[in-house]
UniProtKB/TrEMBL annotation:
<comment type="subunit">
    <text>Homodimer.</text>
</comment>
<feature type="binding site">
    <location>
        <position position="77"/>
    </location>
    <ligand>
        <name>substrate</name>
    </ligand>
</feature>
<dbReference type="GO" id="GO:0005829">
    <property type="term" value="C:cytosol"/>
</dbReference>
<comment type="function">
    <text>Catalyzes the decarboxylation of four acetate groups of uroporphyrinogen-III to yield coproporphyrinogen-III.</text>
</comment>
<keyword id="KW-0627">Porphyrin biosynthesis</keyword>
<dbReference type="GO" id="GO:0004853">
    <property type="term" value="F:uroporphyrinogen decarboxylase activity"/>
</dbReference>
<feature type="binding site">
    <location>
        <position position="153"/>
    </location>
    <ligand>
        <name>substrate</name>
    </ligand>
</feature>
<dbReference type="InterPro" id="IPR006361">
    <property type="entry name" value="Uroporphyrinogen_deCO2ase_HemE"/>
</dbReference>
<keyword id="KW-0963">Cytoplasm</keyword>
<comment type="pathway">
    <text>Porphyrin-containing compound metabolism; protoporphyrin-IX biosynthesis; coproporphyrinogen-III from 5-aminolevulinate: step 4/4.</text>
</comment>
<feature type="binding site">
    <location>
        <position position="324"/>
    </location>
    <ligand>
        <name>substrate</name>
    </ligand>
</feature>
<feature type="site" description="Transition state stabilizer">
    <location>
        <position position="77"/>
    </location>
</feature>
<dbReference type="InterPro" id="IPR000257">
    <property type="entry name" value="Uroporphyrinogen_deCOase"/>
</dbReference>
<feature type="binding site">
    <location>
        <position position="208"/>
    </location>
    <ligand>
        <name>substrate</name>
    </ligand>
</feature>
<feature type="domain" description="Uroporphyrinogen decarboxylase (URO-D)">
    <location>
        <begin position="22"/>
        <end position="31"/>
    </location>
</feature>
<dbReference type="GO" id="GO:0019353">
    <property type="term" value="P:protoporphyrinogen IX biosynthetic process from glutamate"/>
</dbReference>
<keyword id="KW-0456">Lyase</keyword>
Length: 344
C-alpha cells in the first residue's frame, strides 16, 4: 500500500503501535468551539443540525481543520436510532434529550422491530461529504450507542445520574427489556453497516452507562449485545475495525474485550494503568484516557497528566484521547497545548 494511503489511527487498530500515538477527542465537535456554536445557532434544533448533511459535515471537519486530529467522528448522536424507530426524540436547550418513556411491557409491545433507516440518509450523506474532503491520512469514525446505554434513555425518557429506571425495568420485566435490547442490536448492526458503506473507516460503540451495572447484568446487557453487534457487522464486513467504550467497566474490561472481539477499548480516567497494560493492552489497542477536567485546567497539571498517559500506555498500542467527552467550558488553547505535548 502506498505510504500516503495509510492512516496511523487505523494502523493502531490493526495491531501496529505508532511511535507518536494518533490523537482525537470524544465530542471533539461541539460547544467549546466558537465555529461550532455559530453553525449550531443557524441550524435550528440539534437534530436539524444532525440531519443537514452540509452542516453536519462542516462541524465534523471543524476540529480537524483547527487541530489536525488523526480521526474525525461523524457529527450525529446515539439517539438517532430511537428516532428512526419512530419514537419521539427532542433535545431541549440546556436540558438534554427528551423521549417518550418506554417503561412498561405494554409500551414495549408497541415498539417497531425495524428502524426506518431512510430517516438517517442525511447522516450517510454527511459521511460521504466528509470522506470526500478529508485527507487520506485522517480516519473517519462512524458510531452508535450500545443497546444498554440507548435503552437507558428510551426507558427513562431522559438522562438520569444512575439509570435507575432502566435498571429497575431490567429486574422487573427482563423479557420486555430484552426485547428493547434485541431491537437495538438488530438495528445498530444495519446502521453501522450503512455507515461503513458511506465511507466510515472505523466504528465506535458508546456504552457510556455500562459502569452502573452489577457484573451479571453487565455481562447480559452490555457485553452480550455488543458482542452480537460486532459479530453482525463482521458477518458482512469481516475486517471491520471496532472500538468499544464501556465507560466504568473497570475490572470487567478483560471479559468485555475477550467476549466482544473489539479491536480497541476506550478507557476512562479511573482505569488502573498496570491492570490495563497487563490484562487489556496485551490483547487490544487502548484509547484514552486523559481526564477531561485536567484539559479544562491546563497549565502544568495538563502537561503532567499528558505525560502520564504516554508513560502508562505509550509503550503499547495507544490512541491518545480523553477518558470521556470534552467539557464545553474547555479553553481552546489547552487542546493545542495537549497536542503539542503528545506530538512533541
Ligand atoms: O464526538 C463527537 O464530536 C460526535 C458527536 C456526538 C454527539 N453525541 C454530539 C452531541 C457523539 C459521538 C455523541 C454521543 C452521545 N450522545 C453519547 C455517548 C457519548 C458520551 O458523551 O457519553 C450520549 C450518552 C449521547 C446522548 C446525548 N446527546 C446527551 C445526554 C446530550 C445532552 C448533553 C450535552 O452534552 O448537551 C446530547 C446532546 C449532544 N450530542 C450535543 C452534542 C454536540 C450537545 C447539543 C448541542 O450542541 O446543543
Amino acid at each position: 500500500m502506498p505510504h500516503s494511503a495509510t492512516k496511523p489511527f487505523i494502523d493502531v487498530l490493526s495491531g501496529q503501535r505508532q511511535v507518536i500515538p494518533p490523537v482525537w477527542m470524544m465530542r471533539q465537535a461541539g460547544r467549546y468551539l466558537p465555529e461550532y456554536r455559530e453553525v449550531r445557532a443557524k441550524a435550528g434544533g440539534f437534530l436539524d443540525l444532525c440531519f443537514s448533511p452540509e452542516l453536519a459535515a462542516e462541524v465534523t471537519l471543524q476540529p480537524i481543520r483547527r487541530f489536525g486530529f488523526d480521526a474525525a467522528i461523524i457529527f450525529s448522536d446515539i439517539l438517532v436510532i430511537p428516532y428512526a424507530l419512530g419514537r419521539s426524540v427532542r433535545f431541549e436547550v440546556g436540558e438534554g434529550p427528551r423521549l417518550e418513556p418506554l417503561d412498561d411491557p405494554g409500551k414495549v409491545a408497541t415498539l417497531a422491530p425495524r428502524a426506518d433507516l431512510t430517516k438517517l440518509a442525511p447522516v450517510f450523506e454527511a459521511l460521504r461529504i466528509v470522506r470526500g474532503t478529508l485527507d487520506s491520512k485522517v480516519a473517519l469514525i462512524g458510531f452508535c450507542g450500545a443497546p444498554w446505554t440507548v435503552a437507558t434513555y428510551m426507558v427513562a425518557g431522559h438522562g438520569t445520574p444512575d439509570q435507575a429506571p432502566a435498571r429497575m425495568m431490567a429486574y422487573r420485566h427482563p423479557e420486555a427489556f430484552a426485547k428493547i435490547i434485541d431491537v437495538l442490536v438488530d438495528n445498530s448492526i444495519e446502521y453501522l453497516l450503512a455507515q461503513l458503506a458511506a465511507g466510515a473507516d472505523a466504528l465506535q460503540i458508546f456504552d457510556t452507562w455500562a459502569g452502573v451495572l452489577p457484573p451479571a447484568e453487565f455481562a447480559r446487557w452490555s457485553i452480550d449485545p455488543t458482542r452480537r453487534i460486532v459479530a453482525g457487522v463482521r458477518a458482512k464486513v469481516p475486517d471491520a475495525k471496532i472500538i468499544g467504550f464501556p465507560r466504568g467497566a473497570g475490572a470487567q474490561l478483560p471479559a468485555y474485550v475477550e467476549a466482544t472481539g473489539v479491536n480497541a477499548v476506550s478507557i476512562d480516567w479511573t482505569a488502573e494503568p498496570t491492570f490495563i497494560r497487563e490484562r487489556v493492552q496485551t490483547r487490544v489497542a487502548v484509547q484514552g484516557n486523559l481526564d477531561p477536567l485536567v484539559l479544562v485546567t491546563g497549565g502544568e497539571a495538563l502537561d503532567r497528566a499528558v505525560d502520564s498517559v504516554l508513560a502508562n500506555f505509550g509503550h503499547g498500542r495507544l490512541i491518545f484521547n480523553l477518558g470521556h467527552g470534552i467539557q464545553p467550558e474547555t479553553p481552546i488553547a489547552h487542546v493545542g497545548q495537549m497536542l503539542k505535548r503528545v506530538r512533541g
